Amino acid sequence: MTKSFCSSLVIALALFFSFSAAGAAEWQLVGKNNRGAVYYDRYGAKQIPGNVMRVPVKIVYSPDGAKEIREAFPFIAQSETVAYTLYTYEVRCLTNSFMITRAATYDPSGKVIKGTELDYVSTAEASWDHATPNSLVSVLSERVCRYLLPARP
User: Fold this and answer.
1) Is 82 within 8 Å of 124 (Cβ atoms)?
2) Strand (E) positions, the chain?
3) Is residue 1, in this structure, part of any structural domain at all?
4) How far, in Å, CA of 99 to CA of 93, rounded?
5) How many independent structural domains does the chain possess?
6) Which residues fall within 8 angstroms of residue 45, CB to CB, at 6 or more apart?
7) pTM of the model
8) Where are the alpha helices (H) located in 1-150, listed in sequence order?
9) How far apart are CA 63 and CA 77, in angstroms?
10) What range does the domain containing 79 cover?
11) Residue 19 falls within a domain, yes or no?
């Protein structure tokens, strides 16, 4: 191989990995509760029509939170370790309301636990709820909407 070809290959690989890293999730802590720690993906948040932000949310479970998930999905095998759930939230910034549109629960290796994938829109279970003041959803709404509505009260 020629020196110029090797140099070009190194530059191409460096660009590839820098662009790949830019697309990675950046999980920002929203807060903690007895279920675990709640994060949102700052780079995954997208504005959609109607002053709505679509945002990935991740709950990393505490032992109590994992127990709640097991109770909600009794078919999960006892040998299965529940680690986290990824949700898709939609937040209406002007009305401080939200809905969950998708959810899937994962084990520590990042594999979806069978039967926990939920598409609330296709089952018509998605509905708008008001974010309770000082709740984790209210904090999430404030954070993701500040870029859309800088003068938001």
Assistant:
1) no
2) 27-33, 36-41, 46-48, 52-61, 84-92, 97-106, 118-119, 129-130
3) no
4) 12
5) 1
6) 53, 54, 55, 56, 144
7) 0.78
8) 3-22, 63-72, 136-145
9) 16
10) 26-145
11) no
128's tokens: 């708008």
Residue 76 tokens read as 């999960």
Nearest CA among 65, 67, 62, 87 for reference residue 78: 67
CATH number at residue 72: 2.40.128.710
Grouping H, G, I as helix, E, B as strand and the rest as coil, residue 90 is strand
pLDDT in tens, the chain (153 residues): 444 433 333 333 333 333 334 458 899 999 999 999 999 998 999 999 888 999 999 999 999 999 999 888 888 887 789 999 999 999 998 888 999 999 999 999 999 998 899 999 888 888 999 999 999 999 999 999 886 655 444
